[in-house]
């Protein structure tokens, strides 16, 4: 079953299946906040909140999918069902784009589509990742390299999608977003078809048996001596259910989080506690699970900063990055391909690097690699922070700053994400393989929701506009900035003032020429002080905003590095 590269052919089937699924996900994600702000005309904070809730829930539902796969369906059926549900979700996004002018209908269709994408991903995501490890015998040194190769498939799809979906969907015309969503739907269908056609031929265990079928519950409920294993008591289930409910109420009412955020954050604490309470777990298994939990906590800080790519960094690319090259303006969505193509280019080098170090007994253990990943993330934000220091509103910077950030973040991701997937696969007890992969993605759920909250701190240059009292009717100003295709309007009451984002104003363009003498714009108050505060840290400009992630990722990196020696001991020989 081995190929000339030393890996089973099944790895490359999973590579292609995941590539097309990620094409679907990242193609839609590249357009998502642009669709909300340009077509549905949502403001940035609201768009970021929806984005954070969606990406958070996408990584939450793997808990459900992992449980159902481990107990009832198996990996194969879960992947097919999940893929088909996601294809339906992308089609509803296409329908939303078809009716974007009817904001109420388009929003409803969008929410239906997002719901289908969230649940479909829950069945697909943890199960395909789990199957990678099942292709290899226990203790096989190729597993880290296999997950890195698998990760290349993820990012090959993520590279192609923003370009292709962006060319058809991010054209500057709101009516075209639907074509990008339709391409994402087609990509998802290709993923399912490829998997169905080749799964029986290539998805085989090292001894030649089929993998990913329905679980043998009778076998899973007994230990190696044939004795019945203990199960979690109703008392323990009730206790952790009560803990989850108390945390949910606390996050929602006391910490003033939205319902989705409260649900995700409370479950992130309660679910790991419930799993570790299983009385059938041995001491070694519990120690290894604790390593997964501790590293997953630090991973939250990585992904909450990394996932700014889909929200605040998209705003930055749209508004304050010079995207012109040889007379052509690069679509904003295309910048989300930088990370993906860098992974495709550099992942083989990291495979060689880890192999080189392994042969010499110098390969760092997984926790050390992940602390390095966090440190590189902080460096990326430090570079762009200096690039925007002192930047005036409306001034655009060279795209080299954004390209540098994405490239350095790629190095950090290659040290953290595929290594994390491999670590969970190696440390998780077999009976909890998919469920603990779901817990790993639960940390991503928390991070993505947190990322959406942090995007709300993205600073906007604001001005005041005032209408002179001259008529009883409201005056309508047409706001048409450069490269902003759809007219956005702001209705201003006579003598009333409104605060409008600076980038949404073109002073010379007013919808009704007869109103030119009746409207004045107070240029002397061009920028209003509008600082935001995160845990006492003041954010009044882009430099402050980017430095927030430098501090967050840098501190997490140092703490994880010094904890790594203890974590390696808890891994009980698994490195």
Automatic annotation (TrEMBL):
SUPFAM superfamilies linked: MFS general substrate transporter (SSF103473)
Transmembrane keyword on record: yes
Keywords: Cell membrane, Membrane, Peptide transport, Protein transport, Transmembrane, Transmembrane helix, Transport
GO molecular function, one term: peptide transmembrane transporter activity
GO CC annotation, single: plasma membrane
Any GO BP: oligopeptide transport
Topology with respect to the bilayer: Multi-pass membrane protein
Pfam family of the protein (one): PTR2
CDD domains: MFS_DtpA_like (cd17346)
Transmembrane intervals: 48-67, 79-97, 103-124, 145-169, 181-198, 236-254, 260-277, 289-306, 334-356, 368-388, 400-421, 428-447, 545-563
Subcellular localization(s) per the UniProt record: Cell membrane; Membrane
Family: Belongs to the major facilitator superfamily. Proton-dependent oligopeptide transporter (POT/PTR) (TC 2.A.17) family.
Protein name in UniProt: POT family proton-dependent oligopeptide transporter
Species name: Dysgonomonas alginatilytica
């Amino acid at each position: 079953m081995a190929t000339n590269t030393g890996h089973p052919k099944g790895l490359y089937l999973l590579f292609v299946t995941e590539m097309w699924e990620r094409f679907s996900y990242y193609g839609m994600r590249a357009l998502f906040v642009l669709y909300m702000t340009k077509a549905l005309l949502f403001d940035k904070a609201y768009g970021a909140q929806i984005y954070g809730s969606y990406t958070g829930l996408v990584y939450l539902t793997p808990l459900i999918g992992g449980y159902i796969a481990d107990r009832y369906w198996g990996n194969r059926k879960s992947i097919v069902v999940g893929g088909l549900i996601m294809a339906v979700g992308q089609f509803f996004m296409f329908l939303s784009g078809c009716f974007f002018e009817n904001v109420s209908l388009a929003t409803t269709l969008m929410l239906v589509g997002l719901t289908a994408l969230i649940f479909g991903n829950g069945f697909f995501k943890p199960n395909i990742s789990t199957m990678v490890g099942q292709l290899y015998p226990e203790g096989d040194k190729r597993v880290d390299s296999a997950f890195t190769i698998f990760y290349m498939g993820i990012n090959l799809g993520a590279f192609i999608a923003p370009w292709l979906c962006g060319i058809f969907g991010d054209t500057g015309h709101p009516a075209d977003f639907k074509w990008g969503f339709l391409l994402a739907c087609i990509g998802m269908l290709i993923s399912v078809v490829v998997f169905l056609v080749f799964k029986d031929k290539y998805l085989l265990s090292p001894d030649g048996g089929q993998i990913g079928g329905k679980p043998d519950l009778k076998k899973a409920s007994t230990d190696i001596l044939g004795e019945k294993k203990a199960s979690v008591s109703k008392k323990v289930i009730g206790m952790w259910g009560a803990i989850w409910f108390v945390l949910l109420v606390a996050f929602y009412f006391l910490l003033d989080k939205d319902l989705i955020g409260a649900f995700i954050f409370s479950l992130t604490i309660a679910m790991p506690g419930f799993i570790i309470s299983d009385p059938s777990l041995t001491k070694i298994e519990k120690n290894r699970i604790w390593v997964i939990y501790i590293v997953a906590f630090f991973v939250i800080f990585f992904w909450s900063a990394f996932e700014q790519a889909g929200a605040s960094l998209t705003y930055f690319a749209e508004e304050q990055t010079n995207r012109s090259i040889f007379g052509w303006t690069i679509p904003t969505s295309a910048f989300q391909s930088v990370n993906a193509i860098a992974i495709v280019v550099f992942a083989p080098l990291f495979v060689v690097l880890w192999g080189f170090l392994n042969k010499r007994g110098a390969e760092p253990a997984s926790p050390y690699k992940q602390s390095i990943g966090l440190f590189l993330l902080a460096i990326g934000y430090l570079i762009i922070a200096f690039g925007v220091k002192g930047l005036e509103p409306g001034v655009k910077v060279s795209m080299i700053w954004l390209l540098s950030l994405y490239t350095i973040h790629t190095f950090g991701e290659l040290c953290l994400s595929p290594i994390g997937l491999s670590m969970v696969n190696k440390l998780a007890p077999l009976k909890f393989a998919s469920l603990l992969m779901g817990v790993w993605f639960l940390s991503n759920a928390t991070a993505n929701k947190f990322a959406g909250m942090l995007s709300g701190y993205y600073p906007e240059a604001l001005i005041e506009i005032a209408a002179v009292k001259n008529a009883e009717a409201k005056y309508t100003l047409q706001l048409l900035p450069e490269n902003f295709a759809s007219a956005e309007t702001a209705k201003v009451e006579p003598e009333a003032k409104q605060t409008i984002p600076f980038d949404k104003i073109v002073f010379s363009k007013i919808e009704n020429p007869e109103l030119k003498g009746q409207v004045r714009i107070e240029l002397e108050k061009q920028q209003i002080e509008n600082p935001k505060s995160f845990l006492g840290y003041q954010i009044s400009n882009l430099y402050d905003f980017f430095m927030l992630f430098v501090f967050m990722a840098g501190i997490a990196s140092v703490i994880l590095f010094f904890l790594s020696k203890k974590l390696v001991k808890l891994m009980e020989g698994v490195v």
